[in-house]
TrEMBL record:
This is Uncharacterized protein. InterPro entries: Haemolymph_juvenile_hormone-bd, Mite_allergen_7_sf, Mite_allergen_group-7, To_sf. The keyword Lipid metabolism does not apply. Residues 1-21 form the signal peptide. Gene3D superfamilies: 3.15.10.50, Haemolymph juvenile hormone binding protein. Keywords: Signal.
Length: 450
């Protein structure tokens, strides 16, 4: 996020030279970057997590049974301002861990991350304890017997790295553990004088330490089980996908058209809101005609924000770099000029209108899937179509029409080429950078290798 935003700012600095008063609505671009298309592998991961639930109950060759999870022995040394306690627990069972709810799964094929949010309404820790210690350095507090700690409203949030290889895999999964409340009971706890509130506070804090210690023990096999199960599911994704010829040859042209349409919709907004683009002023120009000269001035061009897709677009996912090719352009843009003709010291002020029937350009962008950076691979304006010119008020110098029309056409063409290859292309590049492409179709993921 930060990286992309910085890039925008850098670009804008270099930009104001071309574009007076450049004030692009970067906020829109930045916010849109947060939006991610739904990823097909999210579903695979969701199913894998359902399987994790069962494997927690059954255990696997490499993971012990996690629900119920047995802890033979645990020692917790608790020290605070008011209490100094040594707690030993044994024969402890942790139950209901498998009852987690999948709140959110979000894989990002551009950032190569998987984010995961689970919740657990409740889980229980039950066992036997022995405690010995002092309250306020004065009163002994001790006991042994059964204890339980019930933990409520647990959130498990975290993430993993994603490598888009064959097969795609997640790695380094970590989960952070938080909870809302505890219910605690230690049977046969004796002593402590009459300092009930102090004891209660100390026991609650001690119980929290026990919960953290228990999570620290379960965390690793739990994450390992999730990681193994998801990776197994990703490896099986699409069955023996690669030797299915139908899948192997699929080119998602339609998908890229939808993506380019989305990008251009945003680009239209950006162009519309960028001062000096639509309408745009056109440069003055001048030509000799027999016996004098013609000058064109006060030129304007309307329509640069009406950009649309002009041919099929493609997204080629080949490892780290995604190639995004497409064509875009304009139809029926309008322009105009004031025309001043001067022959032998006299001449009319006329007005010219131009209809630019079509302009189309091709672009090829290289998108770095890791950094999100977008660079221009290739660009060319392959069509500037017919430009119709009409000049009113030229009489009696109608004979100069052709020279003036040629001047107008040349000036418009030069300015359009210049504007499209700098301003338009750069703003398009920025919008693509702010709107990462959709993930590759599931069948394609299998073929991608870094
Ligand atoms: C878990 O064990 C039960 C009973 O033995 C079995 O029916 C089920 O298929 C097992 N689940 C998995 C995922 O191994
Ligand atoms: C799921 O996670 C993504 C990425 O962190 C976030 O943008 C989205 O709002 C979350 N959705 C829900 C329903 O929490
Ligand atoms: C995209 O454009 C580049 C550069 O013109 C070209 O080399 C490449 O073959 C194109 N890719 C596709 C899928 O059309």
């Amino acid at each position: 996020m930060r990286c992309i935003f910085l890039l925008c700012l850098l670009v804008s600095a270099g930009f104001s030279a071309t574009l007076k008063g450049d004030k692009i609505e970067r906020k829109i671009v930045a916010e849109k970057a947060l939006h991610q298309a739904r990823n097909p592998i999210d579903d695979v991961i969701r199913d894998a997590l359902e399987l994790v639930r069962q494997l927690m109950l059954n255990g696997t060759d490499s993971t012990p049974v996690l629900d119920p999870f047995f802890i033979e022995y645990l020692l917790v040394n608790f020290e605070s301002q008011d209490a100094d306690l040594l707690l030993q627990v044994d024969n402890t069972w942790v139950t209901h861990m498998a009852e987690f709810i999948i709140e959110n799964i979000s894989t990002n094929m551009v950032r190569l991350t998987m984010e995961l949010a689970l919740s657990l309404p409740n889980f229980n820790i039950d066992g036997h304890y022995a405690m010995d210690g002092m309250i306020m350095n004065l009163f002994p507090l001790y006991g042994s017997g059964n204890y339980y700690i019930h933990v409520f409203d647990v959130s498990l949030g975290g993430g993993a790295g994603l490598s888009v290889g064959v097969p795609p895999q997640i790695r380094d999964l970590h989960l952070d553990f938080t909870f809302q409340s505890l219910e605690v009971k230690f049977e046969n706890l004796l002593g402590g004088g009459s300092l009930e509130t102090v004891i209660e506070t100390a026991i609650n804090a001690l119980a929290k330490d026990v919960v953290d210690a228990v999570w620290a023990i379960i965390n690793e096999p739990f994450c390992q089980l999730i990681e193994d199960t998801i990776n197994q599911a990703l490896a099986n994704m699409g069955g023996e996908g690669t030797d299915s010829p139908a899948l192997a040859d699929s080119k998602e042209v339609g998908n890229a058209n939808a993506y380019l349409d989305e990008v251009l919709a945003e680009l239209r907004q950006v162009l519309y809101q960028t001062p000096g683009v639509d309408p745009k002023t056109l440069p003055d120009a001048y030509t000799e005609i027999s016996g004098g000269h013609a000058a064109i001035y006060n030129g304007w061009l309307i329509g640069l924000s009406s950009i649309h897709r002009s041919a099929d677009a493609t997204l080629d996912y080949a490892g780290r770099f995604i190639t995004f090719n497409g064509s875009a352009g304009y139809t029926n843009m309008q322009a105009g000029y004031r025309v001043q003709v001067e022959v032998w010291g006299t001449g009319p002020d006329a007005e010219a209108f131009a209809l630019i029937r079509s302009v189309d350009f091709f672009f090829s962008f290289k998108i770095d899937a890791i950094t999100g950076a977008v660079t221009v691979n290739d660009f060319n304006i392959y069509n500037i179509g017919q430009i119709d010119i009409e000049i009113n008020g030229l009489a009696p110098f109608d004979w100069a029409f052709e020279s003036i029309a040629e001047l107008i056409i040349k000036t418009i063409k030069d300015d359009l080429s210049q504007t499209i290859s700098t301003v338009i292309l750069e703003l398009l590049r920025q919008v693509v950078e702010g709107n990462p492409p959709p993930p590759p179709p599931a069948a394609e993921i299998l073929k991608i290798a870094f």
